[in-house]
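Below is our example:

___
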Amino acid sequence: MLEIIPVIDLMNSVAVFGKSGDRENYIPLQSIYANSPDPLEIAASLKRANAKEIYIADLDLIERNGNHNIYKIKEINTILPVILDVGVDNLETFEFLLDFAYKIIVATETLDSIEELEKIFDKYPKERIIISVDVKNNELYTKNMDLNLEDFKEVLRKIDPNEIILLDISSVGTEGGYNKELLESFEEFRDKIILGGGITKDEIEVLSNLGIKKALVGTALHKGEIKIHNF
């Protein structure tokens, strides 16, 4: 059965909504799970709906704009185990975050180098680490590394992580459907994949039948179109 992992983005201590990674135009989130964009209220409601964990992206820390929500995230982690993305760039950043969340995401968007990724995996158990393969316009999205998708697959084969987020940033918030071509190209990693980006209600059963174990869902979940349990 496919596990639905709820997604919320945080900015200035509130949950926000946007499309296709356009962080300049995010607005406060309206969710069926709460009467306000307070992430603590949303998390508590999601727990009552039997969510097992929650994905949180701290957009302030990812953008390094000086504001952050790290202590609010720590509170949320006492309600639901948090899978946290704050734009990890190196081992030092990763280590700092371990006290605030259940699992820490190391994303290609912000990672400094493959060497830093290897340091993280050499020092800490795989159970605490999720690699996020960020894709935009069908290309590996990375600010600091000169790699393409095929190059990064070689890295994944070598490191052999427990979980890999496959995130099509172009599809986030669009409800336009998941990137079928991208998923097919990562077939060898299917048992490890957490799929994200544009997933619709009609695709939940399809993904489950394909053997995908987990999916990140934000927009469609908060609008009530996809439920935590759809079977």
Summary: The domain at 3-223 is CATH 3.20.20.70 (TIM Barrel).
